Amino acid sequence: MTAAALLLLADGRFPAGAHAHSGGAEEAVRAGRITGPETLAAFCRGRLHTAGLTAAALAAAACAGAVPPGALDAAADARTPSPALRATARRLGRQLLRAARATWPAPELDAVARDHPGGLHQPVVLGLAARAAGLAPRDAALAAAYESVGGPTTATVRLLGLDPFDATAVTARLAGDLDRVADLATAAADDAAARGTDALPAASAPLLDIAAEAHAARPVRLFAS
Amino acid sequence: MNGGARVSAHARVTAAPGGALPVLRGEGALALRRTRGEPGRAQVTVVGAMSVPLTGDSLRLTAVVEPGAALSVTSAAATLALPGQGAREPATYDTELTVGEGGELRWLPEPVISVRGSALRMTTRVTLAATARLVLREQQVLGRAGEEPGSLTTRLVVAHGGRALLDQELACGPGAPGWDGGAVIGGHRAVGQLLVVDPALAEKPAEPLALGATAVLTPLVGPAALVTAVAPDALALRGLLDRGAAALGVV
């Protein structure tokens, strides 16, 4: 059952609102930093090993349950200097929590909704949802890592009219990287259980932060972020 | 055979109220000089062509600003990260900064230049009391002109009033997957941050502000604002960070 739960959680059709976000790809296309399969691959590899790794470790730590969700959310704030990205992460966190409570009812998820009415960063909720679904921390990390490249890839098909086969091949070629990032994130989450959130990776991507603010200020855009 | 001749140095400075420097101790590659500052404020310059970490070296710099004291720290020249012969471990450069209640630290070193074949891991840990003020600038240049960079990882961890305020790590060069892609650096060769922490920003938070297409000023969660910038070279980067400083009134 748990393998199926991971497929469900990582599925882009899971009703948690992720389809409305491009993971920074829309602004990168607009700035000419993504122009085709090669530059999409470089963008996704960089995003995976920065924002993706940081998100994956937060998700793994939330799933492991040793660090309280509020402390993980504060760690996510310190790792997210862009207010636009903090707002996006909380919005997606609220939508995911709603979907997860309906899908895998659990008192723990009810408590999170009650204790954090403003919402938690999405990777933290992803980890809690994975826990409620009976998944392991590495599953949560892998789902977060996959999402960090799946969003931009799918969005680029719409933004550039990229061949969907080419876009999917980009994700497929990152399979080894996804596994490595999930391993690193899971090990860091183990560390955080003993040493606190300081042990979590803080890998950052300057252009994602810079572009997120520009994107949020645009009156016309296809994706919310 | 130079692989065995690794440098390890720890320099320390402590600033007390009134511009006093009860501790000012350089060591080996890290020499510290008291330089002319404003009245009531101590100013220290990290000097010398010696501030060159080779792969395998380990440098530490510790600065303490006592409650109510003010300290400015600059460096005389850019720090070059150079390859070390036979060294397998990256050089480390660890900076620990502590600012007490009502204290103020301006930490404004010159850029670090990552030379091809070098490996450097820089870690800056800042601990601020609730009423401390900080202006901190970091600049990294990825390779000398027309040269690919070495491997450079920088982490900046800032705690304010006992809670995490900012935690950012950036890895560039060989061994950092995707660093030059459109999500991270996107072909630029200079990257930097300017962090301003001031209790006044709790009352009146900074508004997000685009500083051109490759730099942005953003409010953090706490009394602080961060300028994040990438640029083709060191000069353009400095220009972007200076615009951010002007917008925050910390020039």
UniProtKB/TrEMBL annotation, chain A:
Which of UniProt's keywords are assigned here?
A: Chaperone, Cytoplasm, Nickel insertion
Provide the coiled-coil residue spans: none
The record's subcellular location field reads: Cytoplasm
Q: What is its main location?
A: cytoplasm
* Record's keyword annotation contains Transport: no
Note whether DNA-binding occurs among the keywords.
no
The record's Gene Ontology cellular component field reads: cytoplasm
So what family is this one in?
A: Belongs to the UreF family.
> What HAMAP family is this protein classified in?
UreF
Q: How does it assemble?
A: UreD, UreF and UreG form a complex that acts as a GTP-hydrolysis-dependent molecular chaperone, activating the urease apoprotein by helping to assemble the nickel containing metallocenter of UreC. The UreE protein probably delivers the nickel.
Q: What does this protein do?
A: Required for maturation of urease via the functional incorporation of the urease nickel metallocenter.
The name this protein carries in UniProt is Urease accessory protein UreF
Encoding gene (name):
ureF
From TrEMBL, chain B:
| Subcellular location, principal | cytoplasm
Q: Where is this chain's protein located in or outside the cell?
A: Cytoplasm
Q: Which domain of life is it from?
A: Bacteria
Q: Name one GO cellular component term.
A: cytoplasm
Molecular function GO terms recorded? nickel cation binding
Key words, A-Z: Chaperone, Cytoplasm, Nickel insertion
Family, per entry: Belongs to the UreD family.
The free-text function statement in the UniProt record for this protein reads: Required for maturation of urease via the functional incorporation of the urease nickel metallocenter.
Q: How does it assemble?
A: UreD, UreF and UreG form a complex that acts as a GTP-hydrolysis-dependent molecular chaperone, activating the urease apoprotein by helping to assemble the nickel containing metallocenter of UreC. The UreE protein probably delivers the nickel.
Q: What is this protein called?
A: Urease accessory protein UreD
Source organism? Streptomyces radicis
Q: Taxonomically, what lineage is the organism?
A: Bacteria, Bacillati, Actinomycetota, Actinomycetes, Kitasatosporales
